[in-house]
Every structure is written in structure tokens, then in C-alpha cells.
Amino acid sequence: MGRHFSVKDFSLFSFLVVLMVIMLLSMYMVDRQWSKMAQMQRLMDEQAKDLRQVQGMLRNIEKDLRKGRIAVASASQDADIKAGSDKTSADAFRRAILATQQDDYQEGDWYVQAIATGLKTITPLISQDVYSANIQSYVLESLLTRDPDTLEWVGLIAKDWQMHEDGLTFTFHLREDVSFSDGTPLNAEDVAFSYRFIMDERIAAPRGRAYFEKIASVTALDKFTVEFKYKEPYFNALSLAGSMSILAQHFYEPYLDKAEEFNQSKGLLLGSGPYRLADPKGWTPDQGLVEVDRNPRYWGTVQPSFDRILWKVIENDSARLTTFRNGEIDIYSARPREYQNLLKDDELIRRTRHFEYMSPSAGYSYIGWNQNRSGKVTRFADKRVRQAMTYLTDRQRIIDEIMLGYGEIAISPFNPRSKQHDPVLSPRKFDLKKAQQLLAEAGYRDTNGDGIIEDQSGTPFEFELVYFQGNEDTKRIILFLKDLYASAGILMKPKPTEWSVMLDLLGKRDFDAISLGWSSGIETDIYQMFHGKQVENNGDNFIHYKNPELDKLIDQARVTVDEEKRMPIWQQAENIMFQDQPYTFLMRRKTMAFIDKRMKNVTITKMGLNSASVPVEWYVPKAQQKYSH
């Protein structure tokens, strides 16, 4: 007869389960204690290293005083600093200082965001997406930053600067109290190295080299003075030099001899900014999140408000919304239909604030028509075909029916409110007959009556359109376009694709057409995307578009420093692109954001939402903080 499970057995079993739970909890607590102890030990080691550096500096000062080497700067020397002398780093922290003066200001807590795509890498220069750039901006710093109220450049790492009379030379005087997050002082050699590193052909940074190729040299004149020399005048010279991310020479220089390791790296990130990676070499994509912690050595006038900033990778739109509803992320960018529904959600409105605006630097979405694939000229090399595709793309219906009016048609890469835009130009409207006429002129007709047009050799007009699979609005737009294109006898095959795969396809130029977006700025330099030179050197002209007349205008505009003379040149360039339609420019979207009310000092500036990373203006009052570091 089988043995029955008795009360005694049950008690013994329960005891063992409880014992195992206690052991697991104990192991977890021990692990947490060890983690805390390791963190404290690391901080103590860093503080000891800093103390040794200070002691060494004091000993050197004492020696110099004994030998009479230290001189006091004269008033005449101070007067020599002219241009830029009033733009000190204190200006960069002006708004952040005002935030700290609020009655409820408090340091601490975390700022948690969501990323819509899995990141391939966060290493500077080789990363290619806006999310990585956003993360890097909390860790890396530059010589200058823009004031979001005036849009003027103000000093950050540079305390002042001068433009020489030749218009080609800029001298920056650096602060002497800045160090990288590992305690190594930042100086002019790091700035000069950053330029050399970008321009080294072994580093997979064609985009960076395209930006900086107008610079002839960057030289450290002394420990805290650096000089930029340009090959020729450049309208954006101060911006280019001032916004270059400063890389730590001691950290990145070894990778020049092992460039492939750098080019394949996932998380090599160290800088002087307000936040740092716990391990500047250890981040990997499989972690599913990125977190940066407060930099205890940050030099800024105002210390960063948050203990930690964290990005969670949540690729599904619905999952991101659910996560926001649950209070697990602090900001949510809504899709149009969602936005209207969420405005009716009393509970959500009670605990959040919402912002709806068109940023002055709002980027644009587009469809890029690849003119050469695998060494073969494609049908999109014919300007008439590209024009026809734009006539077939009913952008106004997309904005009205899918975007619910929260956007505007993009005419070109230039913002319609900028001086670069020619106000005479207006968007092409949907015109099926005009599209069919252009396609017929290009040799496309339905010769066999199957509803699909063919070229003169009988090859059907069909193509794949690559788009990011994680965005529901993009999916709806692509399916809408499939039906529109079919009305003209064109068979478009939607190709939903993961972000990492899209980046690979871009690198190989292996696609028929692709739907993407570009961010924008106060004044947009289109050299990187549309100049013919950016086809050959693996730049961002991945659609193989070339127009020598446009190239000349781009080159001319870039060397024209006088704004009144430069803007008509940009407008001529815009007219050429309007005729050529290298892209079908889709739209500029409004930002529709919900932000947890515990986030304070959230405002709209001339640059959009004041979520700029440096300096950090947002904070959470003590009573509303919910994370401990």
C-alpha cells in the first residue's frame, strides 16, 4: 500500500520551503551588501586618488612660489581678451541656477525614459541614432553650448574665445578646473586629440569626418589654450568648433592602435559631463537599458539634480504607454490618436502635464529613393520617376487622417520658417494624372493589362520600402502609400525591419527605398546628406544622389560667412532639390509629450522642451522622490 502524504510531511516540506526562501533572501541581501560595499570602496578609491592629485598640485604650487615662477595676470592682459570674453561658463548655468533657487528644489531621485529601439552601440562617433546621441550628451561635453532663450553660443568648457581677423582662426581659452569622470584633468591636448581621433581614417566615423573636413588643424597652444584653423571660410565655423565633443585622450588614444576593437565596441563612453557610466567600457546591448549615475567630480557651477538617469528599451508602442501609465517612466511621447484619447483620461491628466509644440529645430521624415543598388543604376535614378512618387504620396491626407493634423508637410530639408527656405515654393499636391504622365514619359506603361506598369524591357515596376517595424504610425503610413502607389500601377512591398538591421542596410546601401528621418538645427548644413562627395566616402548620402550644380551651391553657401549673402544661395539649392526630389520629404511632426508632474521646472524654450542634458534644469521635490541611489 502506497505511503500517504501526512501532516508531518507537510510541515517538514513547508519548513524546507521557508528555509530555502530565507536562504535566497539572505543571499540576495548579502549580494546587495557586497554591491554597496564595492560601490563605496570605488568611491573611496576615487576620493583618495583625487586627494593625492590635490596634494601634488599644492606641492607644485609651493615649489613655484619658492622659485618665483607664479606671476599675477595684469589688467592689460585681461583687456586682451575681446570677442567672447563676456560669454563665460556662468551663462551656461544661468537657467539651472534659477532652478536651484526654487523653494522646493531638491537634488536626488531618478529620471527614467524609454527608448523605442534596441541600441547597437553607445560608443561616440560610431553610433548612428538620436538615442545614443542623447545618452552621450549627458556624459560628453563641448567647448560651447547654446543658450535656449537667446540661441547665442555661451562658454562651457571654454571660458572665453576669440575669432581672429583672418576669419579662419579661432582661439579658445579653457577652464582650468575641469576633469573627466575618472579624475584625469581635461586640458587643451584632449581637445586637439578629439579632432585627430575623428579624422583618423582607421576610425569608422565618416559622418564625423564629413563635418570636420573644413578644419585644417586643431592645436594645443598651451595647457589651456587651443586653436582651430580652417582651410577656408565656413559659415558655421564657431558652431563646429564649439560643439565638438571632447574625448579623453588617455582613454581613447590606445584604440588608435586597435581601431577595429573600437569600431566594433558597444559601450566605450567616458567624458567630463554631469553623468557617467558605472563602467565606461562595460555596457552591452543585451542589458536592455542604459543608466548613467551622477558624476561626483563634476566641475559645473550647478551639480546635476538627478542621482541617476535611466533609459529602458521598450520597442512596442503599447508597452511604452502601459509602462508610463504605471509610473515606471517619467515622459511619454504620444502618437496623435493616443494623444487625443489620453487628453480625456482624467487619472492620467491628474498626475501628468502635457506639452504640444512644433520645435524650431524639428526634424523631418522622408522616403529616400536609392539610385544605385549593388553597382546597378535603379529606376529611381530618373528624376521624373522620383517626381512621380512625390505626386503619388498624398502627404496632406497622411497628416489629416493618420497624424490628425499634428504635423506639416516638409518641402525640403529646410524648416519652412527659416531664412534658408524660399517662400515661393509650396508642397506638391497629390496628382495621380501628373504622376502617370511622368511615369509614361520615363517609359513605364501597363503593356499586358495586369494592372502593373512595366518598363520598356517588360520588367514590372515593383520595389521594397524598408521602414522601422516598431512604429505603428509609420506602419499605417506605409500601408496607406501601398494603396496609393497601386493606383498608378506600382507594386510596393512593405519591408518592416528592426533598427539594427536598418543600420546595416544603410551602411551597405542595400535597399530600394527607405523611410527614415533627420533631426534638424537652427540652420541646416545639407552637405552631409546631399553632396556628391558623401556617396564615395561612406557618408550619409546613402541614396547615391549626385547633382554637380547642387554641389557647387552647397560648397558656395558653406564658405559664405555673410548671412544676407548666404541665404539666397541656400534657397537656390532648395529649388534644385525641389525639382530633383532625391527624397520624398514627408512631414515635420509636432511633439506631443506627457510628463510626470513630479518633474519640476519643465518649460518650452526656443529650442523646444528644456530637457537639455547640460545643464540639467529638471528636478523632483523631496516629498515626491521615489528612488534611492
Description:
It is a single chain. The N and C termini lie far apart (60 Å). This protein folds into two domains: 263 residues, Periplasmic binding protein-like II (D-Maltodextrin-Binding Protein, domain 2), CATH 3.40.190.10; 226 residues, Roll (Dipeptide-binding Protein, domain 3), CATH 3.10.105. It is 37% helix and 18% strand. The strands form seven sheets. Strands 16-20-13-19-17-18 form a six-stranded mixed beta sheet. A hairpin with a 2-residue loop joins β6 and β7. About 7% of the residues have low confidence. With 629 residues, the protein is α+β, with helices and mostly antiparallel strands. It is built from 22 helices and 23 strands.
Structure at a glance:
By secondary structure, the protein is α+β, with helices and mostly antiparallel strands.
Ordered list of secondary-structure elements with their pairings:
Elements: H1 7-67, H2 75-80, H3 89-92, H4 94-100, E1 110-115, H5 130-137, E2 144-146, E3 153-155, E4 158-163, E5 169-174, H6 188-199, H7 206-212, E6 215-222, E7 225-230, H8 237-242, H9 249-252, H10 259-263, E8 275-276, E9 289-294, E10 308-313, H11 317-325, E11 331-333, H12 336-342, H13 346-351, E12 352-357, E13 364-369, E14 372-373, E15 376-377, H14 383-392, H15 395-402, E16 407-409, H16 432-441, E17 462-468, H17 472-486, E18 491-497, H18 499-508, E19 513-518, H19 527-530, H20 533-536, H21 548-559, H22 563-580, E20 583-589, E21 591-596, E22 604-605, E23 608-609
Parallel strand pairs: 1-10, 17-18, 17-19
Antiparallel strand pairs: 2-3, 4-5, 5-7, 6-7, 8-9, 9-10, 11-21, 12-21, 13-19, 13-20, 14-15, 16-20, 22-23
Helix pairs in contact: 14-16, 21-22
